[in-house]
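In the laboratory, one determines a bound structure by crystallizing the protein with its ligand and collecting diffraction data. In a computational setting the workflow is compressed into a single prediction: the sequence and the ligand go in, and a structural description comes out. We illustrate the idea with zinc ion.
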Amino acid sequence: MAIMTIVKDTDEILRKKCRPVTDITPRIIQLLDDMADTLHDSGGVGLAAPQVGVLRRICIIEVEPGELIEFINPVITEKKGSQQEIEGCLSAPGKWGYTKRPAKVTVKALDRNGEEFSLEAEELLARAVCHETDHLEGVLFYDNAVRMLSREEIAEMEADD
Ligand code: ZN
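The predicted complex, in structure-token form:
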């Protein structure tokens, strides 16, 4: 078990474009395992490789506890509709905002065995897929946020937890 340090949004690395994975080496498998430990420790829903300092096109998402999905070289192939919800990021503690995302996306990726899979996602999973694939392009959620939450709204939201 290895928990990696999550880089903050002041770090330039989060603005870089990630390179595709050409070969699923034992190092990549180790990275996936360490990212899962890091995500579970953080209590977040998704984590992209650049957030742990690795500029590779890898992200993981766990919307339903125990149902971790690993994406290697993910590509969104279809977007439908739209939704607007509150979003945050493990690299941007204390920042929350409304983003406009597709209601449904289809995403294609490789799993850790190098097998291609395709997934249809909606609601939170669709938002997470968009958020994490944006990270691979150096884009952060608040770049295109519809509106950021005020301090008061965040305090209210945190009081509800
Ligand atoms: Zn993020």
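The chain is about 25% helix and 30% strand. Keep in mind that any predicted model is a hypothesis to be tested, not a measurement.
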